[in-house]
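Journal club prep — side note

Before the paper discussion, L.F. wants everyone to see what a predicted structure for a comparable chain looks like in token form. Sequence:
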Amino acid sequence: MKYNPDIHYRRSIRLKGYDYSSQGAYFITMCAQNREMLFGYIQDKILYLNEAGLMIQKWYDKVTEKFQNIVNGEMVVMPNHFHCIWHITTKDGITNIPTAVQWFKTMTTNEYIHGVKENGWPPFDKRLWQRNYYEHIIRNEQAYENISNYIRTNPERWDADKLNNNNSIS
């Protein structure tokens, strides 16, 4: 089906007019394309990352090398998605959340392709990550604590997680 702007449109989930290079904390979620279980599995509420999942963690750690004004917060790689908190510490006019997300997706996709070719990782369909991502501006300490706890305990709630393909509602 060809693109038709009358029926195919994408609604932005970004806060209109907000400067995503502003100092603050941001809760980010990225999902694997088609919610493919590419990064590991959960058994008995325990998360087991495979090589691809460990690679996702590695690139998360490297975000602070690439963007000196980002500090990593809580993070978890789930079997088919990734949650994290990024803190922008200073406004540099260059770094913003969309730029960091794009860089992260590019680096992890490139290494995943290498893993498919060299290590037999499961291939993905067209792209590793879904086109968009979810972000939430963390506005106060209570929200920060709630989100941090949500990230930490995400594997324990996997059986009920809406991002778990086994729980999808069509």
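L.F.'s comment for the group: The helical segments are 51-66, 97-119, 141-152. Keep this in mind when we get to the figures.
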